[in-house]
Amino acid sequence: MPAPPPPPPNLTQTRSCDKVDINGSDNFPPWAKITLTSTEAEIEKLIASYELKDAEVTYFCHVEPILQDGPQCGLVALAMASQEYTNPVSVSQLLAEARVRGFTQHGEVYSVDFMATLAAEYLPGHRPVMLVDLQSCPDSLTHALAHNGMILIPYDADFNDAPCLKRGHKAHWALLVGLISSRHGYHVLARHGKSRHLACWPLRDLLESNGNLEEEGTARHAGGYVIPKGGVGGQRGLRGRALALHPYD
């Protein structure tokens, strides 16, 4: 198997640490509230289900859902992000490229670095920025969303696909496409490959799930998965990390 190439030269990394209260606060950033259209009624239903009566949608990017076939959640999330382009990349294209580079065998992607390399090649209109130490610096994530970025983030998916704590045994990828602020804290809007429906999760739950990614599950695909040097919880793995996709001005 060929050795993975290093991250692209223009890949940057950030761990901004201005204080952000993810548990709720009366002092919200002065972002303009987005007026939802009838096509985004699903968001209003999600807000109602969480009883976020004072919620403000500070960012939302509409992408169509793509369902995964096998362990392709990361590639599916990246393909959904590419819908902002006239000719979006297909999951099959990403799978072929990831195999050539030695990033995957069956579609799995257990490294944020691997995902950054693919994003830099197939999303030329976006600047990939590595987000690290997310549990200590959650503002790097909210800042990216508030400035029109999308975020590829790994987490453990429960039976209902919501964030849970399984030490990485249920590792899954989501594409964050929206941010909601309220007195109950921040919630994120997400697309992922296991549902046609938009998801809404408390940011605190997602960050806790992301921070618990330690190892791959025991029920692995026949033939094994490609695990980066240092493991799932290592410096090239998944734990505490995500990838922001910032559109170039």
In CATH terms, the superfamily is Cysteine proteinases
Average predicted confidence as pLDDT: 85
* Fraction of residues in β-strands: 15-25%
Low-pLDDT residue spans: 1-10, 15-33
In CATH, the topology is named Cathepsin B, Chain A
For the report, how would you describe the main beta sheet? Answer: 9 strands, mixed
Q: What gross morphology would you assign?
A: globular
How far apart are the first and last residues' alpha carbons, in Å?
38 Å
CATH class: Alpha Beta
- Relative helix content: 10-25%
- The sequence of SSEs as H and E is EHEHHHEHEEEEEHE
Number of domains: 1
So how many helices?
A: 6
Give a brief rundown of this model.
This protein has helices spanning 41-49, 73-81, 91-100, 112-122, 139-146, 203-210, and strands at 12-14, 56-60, 126-131, 150-157, 163-164, 171-182, 185-191, 199-202, 242-247. By secondary structure, it is α+β, with helices and mostly antiparallel strands. It is 22% helix and 21% strand.
Characterize the structure shown.
The protein is an alpha+beta fold and 249 residues long. It has one domain: Cysteine proteinases (Cathepsin B, Chain A, Alpha-Beta Complex), CATH 3.90.70. Helices cover 22% and strands 21% of the residues. It contains six helices and nine strands; from the N terminus they run E-H-E-H-H-H-E-H-E-E-E-E-E-H-E. Strands 1, 2, 3, 4, 5, 6, 7, 8 and 9 form a nine-stranded mixed beta sheet that branches. It catalyses: N-terminal N(alpha)-acetyl-L-cysteinyl-L-aspartyl-[protein] + H2O = N-terminal L-aspartyl-[protein] + N-acetyl-L-cysteine. Pfam families: ACTMAP-like_C. Keywords: Aminopeptidase, Hydrolase, Protease.
